[in-house]
UniProtKB/TrEMBL annotation:
This is O-methyltransferase C-terminal domain-containing protein. Keywords: Methyltransferase, S-adenosyl-L-methionine, Signal, Transferase. The keyword Iron does not apply. One of its GO terms (biological process) is methylation. InterPro entries: COMT-like, COMT_C, SAM-dependent_MTases_sf, WH-like_DNA-bd_sf, WH_DNA-bd_sf. Residues 1-23 form the signal peptide. Gene3D superfamilies: Vaccinia Virus protein VP39, Winged helix-like DNA-binding domain superfamily/Winged helix DNA-binding domain. It comes from the Eukaryota.
Length: 448
């Protein structure tokens, strides 16, 4: 294929995937969103966004590949590093700018906004203009800013905001230490979770242990973390397991490291015949019980004793035996290889011969080598992008690689398929199938 022909295929894919996305919005309520919409579209918070995410994966991958091909490299290189969006969003979140703007549907002048949050107006207008250029707020008249659909996720009641905060604060501080971590002799070849970039950058109190130990002693950070995890499953697309995986034929489910129930709560709402056990550390379980998360959003599951909250330290304890499903979401990725193996080994001890699908995980980092990607596609059903896209969908799957670096900051990792296979072999599990949810995956295992 000539260079021009390749670019023309990318253009056709952009068109096709954008049309698919528009049709999906229209199917829901007959409309497509605009950049300055001031309300969420009903599809924005849907549990199952698999089709939309598949279209966006192609759209983002092809648009970026096209721009990177046609722009001068220096232009693209500077765009990669001259990024201050997270600092600007940090201000917006800390000062609850969206909460204020919600009271002014026609917009608020930056001079008024500056009085409310005590930030010098000329400086503030520059930050607001950067964000509005991204579609976060709109400048409806000179220096007058109003909310947009994108800015709504920064509202104090929206759980995505907690995720934004995690990346804008502790994660970005950890990210600044990656080079030093790779080069300094005491950290370069070392994978202990207690001394990792995110702990070195944030653990000013000298707390002993890993990130979860640090959070144990910081109530508001921990509570905010567990709220963000609730929303993360929609962002990553893993909540689609509830509709895409034939989970309704099972009657007992164990959610290992289930937090405050980001998976279990919508699951209990949807499948009323299932008995669920949520395992975690004591404080997240207290948050699940005490903050009324369940009492408010799924009181019937508590009243009917369909959900039980139990303490379980997954490095040293096995869950209750003989349940149908042992679910582990976003658990293995928090730990280096040595610790990661112990968790499925403990789960394997509990599994009966009929237990399925033990245990699913989430991101499967995709191959950039087309031959290897094709092998994984034919053997396990992993999805591969068509040429001339990169086989991993390029920037369409960028969060997976960003997330891997986020985990790097914990001395942990997201894993590629061969690494999952190594881990499951060692834990006595056999991979049957990969369920691609257009970003996150479910790995279905049986006992080996
Ligand atoms: C990334 S969160 C995943 C939460 C949930 N599975 C989800 O995806 O919605 C990791 C969870 O592991 C729990 N955890 C961390 N260390 C643990 C340990 N040693 N034993 C049991 N749970 C632990 C945390 O409290 C947290 O809820």
């Amino acid at each position: 294929m000539s260079n021009r022909a390749r670019l023309e295929v990318l253009l056709a894919l952009i068109n096709l995937s954008a049309e698919q996305a528009m049709a999906l919005y229209e199917q829901v309520d007959g409309t497509v969103p605009s950049i300055d919409s001031t309300e969420f579209h009903p599809l924005d918070e849907a549990l199952d966004q698999v089709e939309l995410k598949a279209a966006i994966r192609t759209l983002e991958g092809t648009c970026t590949q096209l721009c990177t091909t046609l722009a001068p490299p220096g232009h693209t290189a500077i765009n990669l590093v001259q990024v201050y969006d997270y600092s600007c969003v940090r201000l917006a979140v800390r000062e609850n700018i969206i909460n204020i703007l919600m009271d002014y549907p026609k917009g608020l002048h930056v001079n008024e906004l500056s009085k409310e949050i005590n930030v010098e107006p000329k400086k503030l207008s520059r930050i607001m203009r950067l964000l509005a250029t991204r579609g976060c707020y709109s400048e409806v008249a000179k220096d007058v800013f109003a909310s947009t659909r994108l800015s709504l996720v920064l509202h104090s009641e929206n759980p995505v905001r907690h995720m934004v905060n995690l990346h804008a604060e502790p994660a970005s501080k950890g990210g600044a230490l990656i080079y030093e971590n790779l080069k300094e002799p005491q950290t370069a070849y070392f994978y202990h979770p207690d001394h990792c970039p995110v702990m070195d950058a944030n653990n000013k109190e000298g707390i002993t242990g890993a990130f979860f130990d640090w959070m144990r002693q910081r109530d508001s950070t921990r509570e905010s973390y567990h709220r963000l995890i609730q929303r993360l499953s929609i962002i990553m697309g893993s909540s689609a397991v509830l509709t895409q995986f034939p989970i309704d034929k099972y009657s007992t489910v164990v959610d290992v490291g289930g937090g405050i129930g980001a998976f279990s709560l919508p699951f209990a709402k949807m499948h009323k015949h299932v008995k669920i056990t949520v395992y975690d550390l004591p404080k997240p379980l207290t948050q699940a019980r005490m903050t009324q998360v369940w009492a408010r959003d799924c009181p019937e599951a508590v009243q009917e004793n369909r959900v039980e909250f139990s303490e379980l330290y997954f490095f040293t304890q096995a869950p209750v035996p003989g349940q149908d499903i042992y679910y582990l979401r976003n658990i293995i990725h928090d730990w280096p290889d040595e610790e990661s193996l112990v968790i499925p080994q403990n789960v394997r001890k509990a599994m009966g011969i009929n237990s399925r699908p033990p245990p699913p995980y989430d991101y499967v980092v995709r191959q950039l080598n087309r031959e290897q990607a094709a092998l994984e596609a034919s053997k396990f059903g992993a999805t591969m992008a068509p040429e001339p896209m990169l086989p991993n969908f390029g920037v369409g799957n960028m969060r997976m690689y960003q997330q891997d670096v986020s985990m790097f900051m914990h001395n942990a990792r997201e894993r590629m398929l061969p690494e999952f296979l190594e881990l499951s072999d060692a834990a006595g599990l056999k991979l049957e199938k990969i369920w691609d949810l257009s970003e996150a995956c479910v790995l279905e295992y049986i006992a080996a």
